[in-house]
Amino acid sequence: MIFGYCRVSTEEQVLDRQLESLKKYNCDEIFMEKITGTKANRPELNKLKEKVREEDIVVIESLSRLGRSTKNLLELVEYFKSRKVKLISTKENIDTESATGQLLLTVLSAISQFERDLTVERTKEGLIAARARGRKGGRPKSDEKALNKAIKLYQSKEYSIKEIVSMTGISQSTIYRNIK
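^ that's the sequence the OP posted. Answer follows.
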């Protein structure tokens, strides 16, 4: 059997580009996920791993869609290899059954991890630079005046939380967190 696997990191992202790539391989079944690649537990990937049998083929659009890190990617490749399952990446044009495919996979996964590490490093540097300029991250603070109004409305016991949220624009959780 030919299985496809595609993944995007958030609910807002679409799988269309990956699905188009997988259609060329006439996959019998495609496993799709909308979950960050940093999660160790990916339900659809787990189902795929349980379902594959010897001589099956797993097609992915890109190596980055499969592994969380170089180590994780190589573990997954080894998992499929140990079960005599062929892995094909359409973007990198890699077939894990060949020696060249194995070499390319190792090199590309190392580069992929390097890029991820650089992104994390740049993000940290950007946050440090922003803090040095007096900027703070995170959610903006609630409007103090509106928050005080929301608390007074709550204490009056004349309005429901839903009405207070509607009148003040302060979220229910913020109101409850600030009630004394």
